[in-house]
Amino acid sequence: MIIRPRSEADGAALEGIAEATHRLDGYPKYLPDDLRSFILEANALRAWVAECDGEIAGHVALHPRSIPEVMEVAVSATGLSENQLVVLARLLVSPVARRRGIGRALVAHATHEARRLGLRAVLDVVDEHRDAVALYEHLGWTRAGTVNWKLPDGRPFREFVYISPEP
Ligand SMILES: CC(C)(COP(=O)(O)OP(=O)(O)OC[C@H]1O[C@@H](n2cnc3c(N)ncnc32)[C@H](O)[C@@H]1OP(=O)(O)O)[C@@H](O)C(=O)NCCC(=O)NCCS
């Protein structure tokens, strides 16, 4: 397995993985009209894919920020300013490639790259995504707080805010 920077050409494969992930895990919780743009988010600072035997198997990105409520929890938990934080986002692994360490490798890679940029990685995760929560805790991330939020269609949901381990 290799992890490499995402390219425009990865869009179709990532959209396919995102569709399968939405069906299986309900991630993303709210299905945007344009799933490809959701994953490829133009504002990402960095983004990578995991490739196994020439096939895209997973994805992770670093975004400059999340919603203000999440950033507030992260700022207060780390004692850092918003500009010193970066948000790990759009983590997903193809359902056919799970439990082989790809998610762990992607999170470790993104966290390491955040440090190289002089930033501390944080993230928010919907409480229902238990596999992801298990992964973050397995990697030593700590839960800093909870945020209640609403989907664009008005349905309420709860998110946990996690902070990456100190270097
Ligand atoms: C979360 C996700 C990325 C994990 O990917 P993965 O490649 O299967 O994870 P890994 O194989 O690297 O697992 C590493 C560790 O995380 C934990 N973990 C991962 N999946 C788990 C599960 N289904 N149940 C319990 N623990 C789990 C385990 O501790 C695991 O270590 P182990 O296999 O030695 O027990 C994947 O399940 C996924 O894409 N989920 C849907 C999308 C999602 O929820 N994204 C998060 C948005 S914030």
Care to describe what's here?
- With 167 residues, the chain is of the alpha+beta class.
- The chain has a single domain (2-163), classed as Aminopeptidase, CATH 3.40.630.
- It is built from five helices and seven strands.
- Strands 1-2-3-4-5-7-6 form a seven-stranded mixed beta sheet, with helices on both faces.
- A hairpin with a 2-residue loop joins strand 2 (46-52) and strand 3 (55-63).
- Bound molecules: coenzyme A.
- Residues 21, 25, 27, 91-93, 98-104, 125, 129, 131-132, 134-135, 138 line the site of coenzyme A.
Radius of gyration over all CA atoms, rounded: 15 Å
Total beta-strand segments: 7
CATH class: Alpha Beta
- Mean pLDDT across the residues is 96
Gross morphology: globular
CATH-defined fold name: Aminopeptidase
Largest sheet: 7 strands, mixed
Strand order of the largest sheet: 1-2-3-4-5-7-6
Note the beta-strand portion: 25-35%
CATH H-level superfamily title: Gcn5-related N-acetyltransferase (GNAT)
Helix content: 25-40%
* Strand and helix order: EHHEEHEHEHEE
Name the poorly predicted regions: none
How many domains? The number is: 1
Are any ligands bound, and if so which?
coenzyme A
Q: If helices are DSSP runs of H or I spanning 4 or more residues, what is the number of helices?
A: 5
CATH architecture: 3-Layer(aba) Sandwich
Quote the distance from N terminus to C terminus: 25 Å
Helix-strand makeup class: alpha+beta
